[in-house]
Amino acid sequence: MRRRAGVTACLLVIPVLLPVLPVPAWSQTPAYEVVADTVPMPLTIVPGDAARGRLIVASRQTGLCLLCHTGPIPEERFQGSLAPDLAGAGSRWSAGQLRLRLVDARRLNPQSIMPAYFKVDGLSRVGAAWQGKPLLEAQQIEDVLAFLQTLKD
Ligand code: HEC
Question: Residue 19's pLDDT is what?
């Protein structure tokens, strides 16, 4: 009888808790619309933060951009030589063009080695733990974009 009461209590508590449990970031991944060579609309309501974006670009854990790119981030000593210098990217490209580049660079160049940072479908060889999750969350994409826009020639 006590056991049944416990089960009943659990069944009652679960629906109450469900709405307050943290929603995994990937399930919030919104759709994005590609128009020509751009993703014109921001992925988030909150505008990107350039300072946070700079940290992501410099980070060897999150962005890993400097594996391939060089950029005006003097404190990072070892920078890549496989991709164009990020300096001036904010003059060369519009926000929408940069956003598509980050979301899915292969839409622009099918042979690109640049990772699709915000693509979750159509990928192959994705480990179980990473399935359905973009490399960067929507807000991180907007942060990186805000930083790139500060890189004017
Ligand atoms: C594995 C290598 C690699 C990584 C990692 C990478 N990129 Fe790229 N990126 C490239 C290559 C190569 C190009 C040149 C165009 C192409 O081939 O798609 C490029 C192009 C770009 C461009 C356009 C440059 C220009 O002015 O023509 C931008 C901006 C850019 N990447 C930003 C980033 C950012 C920001 C990150 C990290 C979040 C990043 N990339 C991570 C390889 C990489």
Answer: 57
For the structural domain made of 23-150, what CATH number should be given? 1.10.760.10
Question: Buried (b) or exposed (e) across 8-29, using 16+ Cβ within 10 A?
Answer: eeeeeeeeeeeeeeeeeeeeeb
- Ligand 1 center–CA 147 separation, angstroms: 14
pLDDT at 25: 53
Quote the ligand 1 centre to 26 CA distance (angstroms).
23
Q: Which residue type, as a one-letter code, is found at position 74?
A: P
Mean pLDDT calculated for residue range 15-25? 57
How confident is the model at residue 67, as a pLDDT? 96
Kindly list the domain boundaries of the chain, sorted by start residue: 23-150
Label residue 97 by pLDDT band (50, 70, 90). Answer: very high
Ligand 1: centre distance to CA 92 (Å): 13
Which atom belonging to ligand 1 lies closest to the Cα atom of 109? Answer: 18
